[in-house]
Write a structure and sequence with these properties.
single chain, 4-stranded antiparallel beta sheet, elongated, 7-stranded mixed beta sheet
Length: 123
């Protein structure tokens, strides 16, 4: 199973983007989910996280501008990014603790990563 992140692109400072993260396999169940980002030459950092119960936390640098949410019916997690700044430029990755079942109903539980979606904010 892979997580498929989408929604990145080029946007001007002050603009908005919404990132989505969905599993490549139907029946995948998300538990805790997080968005990370990695800017060129920097370490990957946590941006936002949401638990299975809906509790959220954010990096100080994005508080009040970014919102993480989940649609359990669609098995999709979102990151709404408003008031974007050039320093938000990075590749954004979704990460999830989740579970799915093999064809023989064997459960597979693990930690999964998406391939990343690039966000570029111009000044």
């Amino acid at each position: 199973v892979q997580l498929q992140a989408s929604g990145g692109g080029l946007v001007q400072a002050g603009g908005s983007l919404r990132l989505s993260c969905a599993a490549s396999r139907s029946g995948f169940s998300f538990n805790a989910v997080a968005w990370y980002r990695q800017a060129p030459g920097k370490q990957r950092e946590l941006v936002a996280a949401i638990t299975s119960g809906g509790s959220m936390n954010y990096a100080d640098s994005v508080k009040g501008r970014f919102t993480i949410s989940r649609d359990n019916a669609k098995n999709t997690v979102y990151l709404q990014m408003n008031s974007l700044k050039p320093e938000d430029t990075a590749v954004y990755y979704c990460n999830a603790q989740g579970r799915y079942y093999l064809d023989d109903d064997t459960p597979v539980v693990g930690n999964f990563w998406g391939q990343g979606t690039e966000v570029t904010v111009s000044s």
